Every structure is written in structure tokens, then in C-alpha cells.
Amino acid sequence: MAINKVVSYFFVSLLLVSSLACGQNKDYLVTITTRHGEIQAVLFDDTPQHKNNFIALAEAGRFDSTQFHRVIKNFMVQGGDVFGKEGLPPQEWPTIPAEILPHHYHRKGMIAAARQNDNINPTRASNGSQFYIVQGRTYEELELTTDFTALQKAILQYVQLESQRPLKEEYNRLYAEQKFDSLTNLILSKRDEIAQALKLTLTKTYTPEQIKAYATIGGTPHLDREYTVFGEVISGMDVVEKIAQEPTTREVPDTPVWMQVKVEKMSKKKITEEYGYTYPAIK
Predict the structure, then answer these.
(1) Which one, 112, 192, 208, 239, has least CB within 10 Å?
(2) Residue 81: count of CB within 10 angstroms of its CB
(3) Residue 171 and residue 184: Cα distance in Å, rounded?
(4) Predicted TM-score (pTM) of this structure
(5) For 28-139+212-275, which CATH class?
(6) pLDDT in tens, 103-131
């Protein structure tokens, strides 16, 4: 009798281990269908509240017949306004606690959660349904690693110094002529000089991987550490590009870009084979 119990427990344990292993070897493949084509994506395990919420909305069909309602070329495309579609008053829209992680940054193709501004949302909680896909642009290392907000304040202080009168005149001339690219280049060229003179830190820290990604792939780095990034497009960025090219009025596409969203469980091996996505190593 005792032996039978041991054997029974042994087989139950094997089944549990097998079930857990099977679950770890599968993932949800997200497919967003639009009139421009399909976008496939995966969602990150280390942002579980955002991943589970998105999957639940998709499985219930609640994303269907929502739009990409906010489109800004060379920035991002935003959609999935489930609660607006369902007529829920904005003050009652659910939110998700922030899951902002430093290794998930806003390179091109990343999926992140929209949210209200810090002044009314200091915890940076995400909207319970709306998401955006990053398009962005490429950045040189000097531009990427500069804290522009701090630098802009610093240069206004710096040009007040008597010794910097020529710089002040050049700054004012470029501003008056609306040569803003040249003005930006001028400000950047003076960054380290200003930092040293005023004893300020005017830089932001990025890893070599991030610097390379923003220089070659592109993205929207000023959103890093501000919004929860919880997924990544693994196929169909050409569709995102087409959506980003839509003519808009006040950022709303003149012709609606409706979406349908489905999720299906698929082995990670198959996702890698079909879409070339490499899952991060489990630490």
C-alpha cells in the first residue's frame, strides 16, 4: 500500500513538472489586423500585469473595432481605446500599476502603455487598455546622451556671462531666423563646456546596447523610464510604418484605422522559427 502511494505521488509529481515545463515553453502570439495588414507581437513576462491585462482584453474581443486613434509620424501610433468604445466615462477608466523596467526601452517596434501626465498621475499608472507602438527616429550618441531639458536651462544662464556675448548673439540670431536644427547643433556643441563652467550634470546614461539600438534602429528615447514598455513587434513593422504615414487632423487619421486583436498560444520554438524572435535567457 505504501509503495503504491509512493508510485502515485511520483507520477503526480512528474505530471506537474511536465505541465510547468510545457507552460514555460509556450507563449502568447499577438496578432493585430488592420486594413494595412497584420502586426505580430509578443508581450514580456516581467511586466505580468500589463501582459495579463492585454491578453484578457484580446481574448474577450474588446480590442476589436477600436482604432489607431492617435498617429504622429516619426514618433508612434496609439490605439486600443476599449473603454472609450464601450462608453465608460474617462474618470472611471481602469488603470494598471506601472511596471517600468530599465532594460525595456523605447527602441523602434516596442509596445508601451499610454497614461495620463505626471501632474495628475504621479505614480505613472498605465491606461487600462490604450497602447502605442514606437516608430521614432535614429539618434547620434551626443544627442542621445544629452539631458536637453537641463541643457536648455543651462545655456540661458551661460549666455548671460559677459565672456559669452558672442555665443548669446549667435543663439539669438539662429532663434530669430528659426534655424532650429542649427540652434540645436550649437547648443549640443557647447554641452560639456557649459557643464564644466556651471558645474552641472547635463548628460543621461545609456548602455552601449541602447546607444547602438537608437543609432541604428531608432526609437523615442525621451520616453524611457517614463512609460511601461511591455511588448515588442516581431513582424509587421511595415504595417506600423504605413499607419504612421496616414494623413491626420490633430493627430487623428482622416480615414479610420480599425483593428482586430487576437492572441494564440504557440510554442516559443515555433515563434522563434517563424518570426526570428530570440527570447531572453532565464536568469
Answers:
(1) 208
(2) 20
(3) 10
(4) 0.87
(5) mainly beta
(6) 999 999 999 999 999 999 999 999 999 99
